Amino acid sequence: MPRSRWTVAVLGGLSAALLVPSLALAAPSQSNVTVYATGGPATATVTGGPITGLGDDAQGHPLNPCPPSACESFGITLVAPGGYTATNQINLSVSVAYPGTLGGTLDTYLEDSGGNILGADPNSNNPSVAADSDAAPGNYVVIIAGSVGANDTYTATVTASSSPRAQVVLPPLSTTISFGVPSVMDPIHPFGEPSIGVSRIGDVFASGPTGTGTQRSAWEVSKDGGYTYRVINQMTPPNAVQSINAPPGGGDTDLAFDNRPQQGHYFSDLYALACLRNEKTTDEGATTSEAYSTSLNLVRPTVYQEYGPTSFQAWVKSPDGLNYTSADGGNSHFGADGYPAIDQVTGKVFEATYSGSTIKLNIGTPNDAAGDLTFLDDTGGPGLITVANGVINSGDVANFVVSSMDAARNLYVTWVGRSTIASQRQVFVAASSPSTGWTQWTAPVQVSDGLASTGDAVNVFPWIKAGGSGMADAVWYGDSSSLDPSSTSSGHVWNVFMNQLAFPTNTDGTINYNAPTTQVLKVTPHPMDYEDVCLSGTGCITNMPPGNRNLADFFSVTMDNTGAAEIIYDDMSNGLIQQPFATSNSADHAGAALVMVIRQNAGTGLLGTPVGGPSAAPIAGQTDPSADALFSVTSGAVTGTNHTSLDFLSNQLSLSGNTLTVTMKVVDLTGATLAADMASIPGTAFQQYVTRWQMGNTIYYAMMETNGAQRSTNTDQYFAGAAQSIDLCSVSACDPHVLYYPEAGTTAHNETGTVSCPATPSVSSPCTITITVNRVDVGTPTVSSLLEEVGSYAFASSHLQASIDNAQAQADNVPLEVDGICCFNFQANNLVSVPEVPWVPALPLVGAALVAAGIARRRRRDKGPRHIA
Known about the structure:
- By secondary structure, the chain is mainly β.
- It has three domains: about 5-165, Jelly Rolls, CATH 2.60.120.380; about 180-210 and about 250-615 and about 850-865, 7 Propeller (Methylamine Dehydrogenase, Chain H), CATH 2.130.10; about 620-835, Immunoglobulin-like, CATH 2.60.40.
- The longest helix is centred in the C-terminal third of the chain and has 10 residues, at about 670-680.
- The chain is elongated and about 100 Å long.
- The protein starts with a strand and ends in an 11-residue tail after the last strand.
- The relative contact order is 0.13.
- The model is unreliable at about 1-40, about 295-300 and about 835-869 (pLDDT under 50).
C-alpha cells in the first residue's frame, strides 16, 4: 500500500485530540472522525495488506530497505495550536489488528520524521500497538512489518488524546554526596556476593555465601545501625566451638522483608547447587525458623521466590516465607538471570535481563486470590517488553540485570555492557512509569563515566536501589585499567562507584521521561581489589590460567530509613593468601573478600532529603554503649544477658616515638567475672580482645588474650602483627575463608601490656586494656600514616587463634564475636574520641508505597554462573 498521510489536529481549549484527514491525500477507509470534548480520544483508521515475508530484524528494528511486500507505511501529521503542549500532554498511538488466520504475525513501529523509533511492538502481538506518550506536533511515520510467516491484511487505528500536563516536580537539589568510614561486617569470615537489607526499626541485616565447599552461608544482624554485626542462629546456635552452622548451604543468598505489623525478615540460601533453604525471623534475629520446599494450602502469598534450575526458570509462592508451592504452574519463564522487583500495590513481579542485543522485561501478574502468576511470555500472552535496544552483550556468564521500584512505582533497570572490548563495559540505567504499564522506557542513561582518570574505565557487577519518587542509586565496581576484567595481567585497580539519579517527576510522582540529574562519585576510600575479576562463573576454574572469582558475581546497595545509601562490598586489597603461598596461583587465589559496609553521611538521600552521619576524618578513638555484649545459648550473640567482661566502652590509639599504644576499655575484667562469662558461652577457653586496622594494603592488629586463670594471676598475653588467612576450596578453586590474628608465626609478635581494674568495676569506672606495640611489628607507622577502618572486637574462642587449622576452619571452629566497636580512621595528630554511633537511623520509612503484602526474593538453582567459589 502506498504511503498515506493523516493529520491529527488538537484544538485549543479542548482536552481531546482531533484526528482529521489531510485534504491532499486519498480518502480514508473510514471517513468519520469523532471529537470528545470531555477528553475522549480522536481516531482514524487505515486498512492495508496483505503483508507477506519478514520485515524486521531480531533486534526489533524494521528492515531498511524493507522488501515492498513485507512492509507498508503511512504518515501522520500531528497538529496543535502554538504552545499547546506546554500545558497539555498528547498521547499518539497506533493499534494494528489483523485476522491471523493464514498464519504469521505483524509488528508495528512509530517513527519521527528523522527515522527514530518512538514506539514499537516487535513482539508479534495482536493487536500490535506502538505509541508515544508525550508526542509533539509534527510529522510521524507508521511502519507495519511482517514477522515470521506473515501473510495478512490489517486494520490500523490511529488514536490521539490529550490531557492537562501534570506539573513537573524537579528533583531535589543535591549537595555533594560523601560516605563515612567503611565498617568491617565480619572480621573473621570473608565471602563474596554480599547482600544487605534494613528492617523497619533500623537493624541492618547482611548475608553471603562462604562456598559450596563449606556448605554454609553467613547471615548476620547489626543492632547499632550497621557498624558491628552478630551471627544469627541457623538451626544450631552460635557459640565458641562453631560460629556459623553448615545446615547446609553456601550458595547464593538473598534477604527480604515483609510489611506486616510484626515485620518478617527472610533469608534464603542455596545448598549443594541444588536446593533452596529458607529461614525466617520475626524478632530481628533473636529466634529463627527454617523450612525446605514443602506443599501447603496457600492463602494470599507474602513471599514470591524465583529460582532457575538448569532446564527452566520458575516462580514459587509462600504465605509464610518458609513453605512454597508453584506460582506459575511449573512453567518456564524468561528473566531468571535478572534480579527482580515487586509492586507493593498490585503484587506484580518484574524481572529484566539480556536478550540478544536488547534488555527485555517480563512481568508476572497475580491472577487469583491464591497469588498465582500470569507472565507476559505465557502462551497467548502479550509478549515481553523491550527496555533497551542496541545493548552490548558478548555473553559473560556473570554480570546481571537488576530491577528496583521506587515509592511512586516507577521501575528502574540497570545493566552493564558485556563486551570483549573493555571500554564498552559501561553501566546504564533506564526507567519506566506505571502510567504506561511499564511498557515505555526512558532512553538508557550511562551512569559510569568511562574515564581512566577517575578510575572508572571498565565496569562490572551493577546494582540499583530506588527510593522516593524519581530517585535511585546505582553502584558498580570500576577499574582504572583498560584491561578486560578477566585478564590475569597485572594493572587492575578496582573501586566502588555510585551514581545517584534524580528523574523529574509529575505531581503524582511518576517520571515524565525527561533526562535525570546525576551525581557520580568514587565511594571507596582506597582500591578494594587489584586482581582480575573472572566473569566465567563456575567456569573460571577451567580458564587457563584459572580466573580469580573471590568476589563471586555481585554486590549490592540499599538505603537506611533516612534514605542514606548503604553499600555492602568486598575489599580484597589485603592480598591475603594462606601461607606458604605468597601470591595467587592456579590452585589458590589471593585476596580475602573482607565484607565492608559503607554508609552515606552527606548529601541528598534517596528520600529526597539531606542525610548525615559520622565523618571519615581521622580521630583518636570511639565510644560504645554499654550492655551490648549479649549472649544466650539459644540465640548466640544476637540477644541474651550482658557479659560485662566482653562489653566494650571505648577504644583509642596513640603514637609516640616507636610505640603505638592501643587502649580498650571494658566494663569488668576481674577474674571471677571473666570466668563466669566464659562458662556461660559453650566451649570458651579464651577471651580475645582484638583491635585491627588496615594500613596500605595490609591488615594489622593488636590483641590481648586471657582466660579465668590468667586473669586471676595477671598473666594475660599480648600480641601484634599482620592478620593471616585460612584458605578453603570449592567449585572455583581455593581462596581465603577465615581471617585470624595469630599469637605466633612469621607475622606475629609478642608485645607488652597491662590490664587495670578498679576495686569495683562498673560502666562509670571500667577496666582498661593497654597494649604497647613496637611500631616495627605493625608496618612502622609514622605520624602521617593513615590507619584505616580501626575496629575493636571481643571474641569468645575455644582455642588460640594461631592454632586454627584448615579442618577447624572447615567446621567454622573460629572465634565468636560478642561485642565490637567499628570503625574509625587514625592519624597520630588527632586525639579526640567521638561516639561510635552518633547517627543511628531508626526512623519510619518515609514515602514508600508499601501497601499490599508481597516481597520479591530471587534465587536460582544449579545455575553455575551464580555460585560462590
